[in-house]
Design brief:
Helix content: 55-70%
Oligomer: single chain
Strand content: under 5%
Radius of gyration: 23 Å
Order of helices and strands: HHHHHHHHHHHHEEH
Length: about 290
């Protein structure tokens, strides 16, 4: 009996922690901002149920624990998707529209199904919280049946620029629209996108490598346009995505010499308690955040 209580407490604690981690993912890529925000908001509305279960002295049945554990796995998928959307390349996310929409649909369906398996009347939660959770369940059911679509204009604009040659001229109006919709209007935005594209270079898939080079051309066109509007906007060389020819000429820097956060060559490395080495300024910023 004691082991069952501990198991139930562990499941509830895990659920609470997962929702807290989702709440901490505060920045969502503009291309799917509506979808990411809706997913995050709905999951966070489940937090009061987990808080009341954590404070409850009434034992949770084995059936309810199993259902809550299934819900925990679904929330884990939601957290993974939200993190991916927060950290991934904006350009890549838009061009990979079909796969992204499938992931939203799969996660939404998992959350709707697992919430439907929970008998809320068996749980020691207030009527107010139960009504809120049932409302969230209804929202997921509606979202599963009628999933929000992505920005078609953004996808079409980006696909067009992605398909043209590196030397082709692109309408400045289109580039301005892309820069604004992708939120690539500042040095920090452009540098972050370059780093996100660089992270994708770790894959040995040749087709993916070609796709990333074409994405870097798109980013270069947006950067060139932004520089015509503001000469101070320029991506530092350490953050640029290089072509295969440029990488062949450049000296090879071992991965261990790069900061895992910034991906740049470390100049002031420090070792944390886990044994991992970071650039001092980046790990300090990360810890503060």
């Amino acid at each position: 009996m004691e082991e069952e209580v501990k198991g139930a407490a562990a499941v509830v604690e895990s659920l609470s922690r997962a929702v807290e981690e989702i709440a901490a993912i505060s920045y969502h890529r503009n291309a799917y901002k509506k979808q990411f925000c809706n997913l995050s908001r709905r999951v966070r509305l489940l937090a009061p149920m987990f808080e009341e279960l954590r404070e409850s002295k009434k034992p949770i049945s084995e059936k309810a624990v199993t259902a809550l554990a299934s819900l925990g796995r679904a929330i884990g998928l939601a957290k993974e998707l939200l993190r991916f959307g927060s950290r991934g390349s904006k350009i890549s996310l838009v061009l990979d529209r079909d796969r992204m929409m499938r992931r939203f649909q799969e996660v939404t369906a998992q959350l709707e199904q697992t919430l439907g398996e929970i008998s809320f009347g068996e749980l020691d939660i207030s009527d107010e919280v139960r009504e809120q959770v049932e409302l969230v369940h209804t929202q997921f059911k509606r979202a599963k049946e009628q999933l929000d679509t992505s920005d078609a204009e953004l996808f079409n604009d980006l696909s067009y620029v992605y398909g043209v040659s590196i030397h082709a001229k692109v309408d400045p109006v289109l580039l301005r629209r892309l820069a604004e919709k992708l939120q690539l209007t500042t040095i920090a935005d452009l540098k972050q996108e370059s780093l996100a594209l660089n992270e994708l270079l770790g894959d040995d898939d040749r087709d993916l490598g070609e796709a990333i080079k074409k994405m870097s051309v798109v980013l270069k066109k947006i950067e060139d346009y932004m520089q015509t509007q503001n000469p101070d906007v320029c991506i530092p060389a350490s953050a640029k995505v290089f072509t295969s020819d440029e990488m062949a000429k450049a000296p090879v820097v071992p991965d261990d010499f790069r900061c895992p956060i910034s991906l740049e060559l470390m100049r002031d490395p420090v070792i944390v308690s886990t044994g991992q080495t970071y650039e001092r300024v980046f790990i300090e910023k990360w810890l503060k955040a």
